[in-house]
């Protein structure tokens, strides 16, 4: 009798989604193609709390500086280039457009799905 490790597919998913973002739309399609009906959080309308964002980033193994959209005008307007990690997370909570997207949570883990294919590691 052979004991082979099996990995069960994810059964639940939450995507922090911006419907105007083509990458976010592609990731949503991949989740749905995997047979999962995800919870969609439109984070621009319903941003995570500071603690919630910190947990998402911690679970994904990311620092705020790795998950902030540096090309957004508000990033430059707020002078965030020299900000601390704590200052960056505060800025992301106050200005959710700064949160890189899409963040995806399943029962197999949390990823920032960039590139798009990265989401398959947790489906």
TrEMBL record:
<protein>
    <recommendedName>
        <fullName>arsenate reductase (glutathione/glutaredoxin)</fullName>
        <ecNumber>1.20.4.1</ecNumber>
    </recommendedName>
</protein>
<dbReference type="InterPro" id="IPR036249">
    <property type="entry name" value="Thioredoxin-like_sf"/>
</dbReference>
<keyword id="KW-0560">Oxidoreductase</keyword>
<dbReference type="GO" id="GO:0008794">
    <property type="term" value="F:arsenate reductase (glutaredoxin) activity"/>
</dbReference>
<comment type="similarity">
    <text>Belongs to the ArsC family.</text>
</comment>
<dbReference type="InterPro" id="IPR006659">
    <property type="entry name" value="Arsenate_reductase"/>
</dbReference>
<dbReference type="Pfam" id="PF03960">
    <property type="entry name" value="ArsC"/>
</dbReference>
<dbReference type="InterPro" id="IPR006660">
    <property type="entry name" value="Arsenate_reductase-like"/>
</dbReference>
């Amino acid at each position: 009798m052979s004991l082979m490790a099996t990995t069960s597919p994810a059964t639940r998913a939450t995507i922090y989604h911006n419907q105007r973002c083509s990458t976010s739309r592609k990731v949503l399609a991949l989740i749905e193609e995997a047979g999962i009906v995800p919870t969609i959080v439109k984070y621009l309308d319903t941003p995570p709390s500071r603690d919630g964002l910190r947990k998402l980033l911690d679970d994904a193994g990311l620092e705020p500086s790795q998950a902030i959209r540096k090309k957004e005008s508000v990033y430059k307007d707020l002078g965030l280039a020299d900000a601390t990690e704590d200052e960056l997370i505060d800025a992301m909570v106050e200005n959710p457009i700064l949160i890189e997207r899409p963040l995806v949570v399943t029962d197999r883990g949390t990823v920032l799905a960039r590139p798009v294919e990265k989401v398959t590691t947790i489906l």
